[in-house]
Amino acid sequence: MAVKKLCESYSKSFRGEVQRWGCMKQTGVSLRYMMEFGSRPTEKNLLISAQFLHKELPIRIARRAIELESLPYGLSEKPAVLEVRDWYLDSFRDLRSFPEIKDKNDELEFTQMIKMIKVRHNNVVPTMALGVQQLKKGMNPKIVYEDLDEIHQFLDRFYMSRIGIRMLIGQHVELHNPNPAPDCVGYIHTKMSPVEVARSASEDARSICLREYGSAPDISMYGDPNFTFPYVPTHLHLMVFELVKNSLRAVQERYMDSDKVAPHVRIVVADGIEDVTIKVSDEGGGIRRSGLPKIFTYLYSTAKNPLDEQSDLGSAGGLTMAGYGYGLPISRLYARYFGGDLQIISMEGYGELIF
């Protein structure tokens, strides 16, 4: 892969512009504001939204590009990380070269551009995960990975920022949909049923398990399907999919050579006064107490490293049961993005409860 450091491949003026925008303060946007503003997708509001993104996106993207240049332990030099850095720099250049947005035609052209930027960044997560695994593969096996705080803190910031960037772009683009689904405001479903989303996500996870192992544990769902609240269905789907996938793998591998019938994975959706809680529980054997501090780090996975079987970056988009070590930490970031959280209680020798 022909890649160079930022200082070698980009002009001094461009580097200065990235640094300048990376020092600017970004603006937070709440779910409530996006829902209220997007409920009236008039030509004027779409213009205001595009003008905001024209200034906001370069700030967020520049910050990540700068950080990608200065990661510890040589992570910045890994081929996969250099590829991701170039995606961010290309997107920054596209945004900064776009002229001032003054009318509807400008807004529509800008919307098409940011839609392409979103597509460009589709594989950022698996590609970064490959970069981290490349780093791990070359490290001393005696290194305690959870002690690499700088890398974990960077990846938390990086992935959280990516969630925000994709939410802002996706929300703006979806507001142009001439035939939105009922009760939807852009990406936000104002009457989302967590039971229905969890059911869909668990079915998707089970199909992956069936493909991987030839069989899969059953899933039991508990909760009121008529209960709804405003949220982003794609976010919840991703979280439940990852959690159920982990549970299915643990149960399947524990019982695949047993005469006993594999116990169900259980999902419970509870509506509280302040929170909506989704519990995923299994009898997959749990995690050792010594392993619990590692489960939210990006350098840890209980599954086999996919790089041991395939090192081609072009395969980053492939979907496997496990192995890159980012499913749980990424799911926790999605939960925290709108003020929630993800917690795990493990009973070694029995299974896990995931909230």
UniProtKB/TrEMBL annotation:
<keyword id="KW-0496">Mitochondrion</keyword>
<dbReference type="InterPro" id="IPR005467">
    <property type="entry name" value="His_kinase_dom"/>
</dbReference>
<dbReference type="GO" id="GO:0004740">
    <property type="term" value="F:pyruvate dehydrogenase (acetyl-transferring) kinase activity"/>
</dbReference>
<dbReference type="InterPro" id="IPR003594">
    <property type="entry name" value="HATPase_dom"/>
</dbReference>
<dbReference type="Pfam" id="PF02518">
    <property type="entry name" value="HATPase_c"/>
</dbReference>
<dbReference type="InterPro" id="IPR036784">
    <property type="entry name" value="AK/P_DHK_N_sf"/>
</dbReference>
<dbReference type="InterPro" id="IPR018955">
    <property type="entry name" value="BCDHK/PDK_N"/>
</dbReference>
<dbReference type="GO" id="GO:0005759">
    <property type="term" value="C:mitochondrial matrix"/>
</dbReference>
<comment type="similarity">
    <text>Belongs to the PDK/BCKDK protein kinase family.</text>
</comment>
<keyword id="KW-0418">Kinase</keyword>
<keyword id="KW-0547">Nucleotide-binding</keyword>
<protein>
    <recommendedName>
        <fullName>Protein-serine/threonine kinase</fullName>
        <ecNumber>2.7.11.-</ecNumber>
    </recommendedName>
</protein>
<keyword id="KW-0808">Transferase</keyword>
<feature type="domain" description="Histidine kinase">
    <location>
        <begin position="233"/>
        <end position="355"/>
    </location>
</feature>
<dbReference type="GO" id="GO:0005524">
    <property type="term" value="F:ATP binding"/>
</dbReference>
<dbReference type="Pfam" id="PF10436">
    <property type="entry name" value="BCDHK_Adom3"/>
</dbReference>
<dbReference type="GO" id="GO:0010906">
    <property type="term" value="P:regulation of glucose metabolic process"/>
</dbReference>
<dbReference type="InterPro" id="IPR036890">
    <property type="entry name" value="HATPase_C_sf"/>
</dbReference>
<keyword id="KW-0067">ATP-binding</keyword>
<dbReference type="InterPro" id="IPR039028">
    <property type="entry name" value="BCKD/PDK"/>
</dbReference>
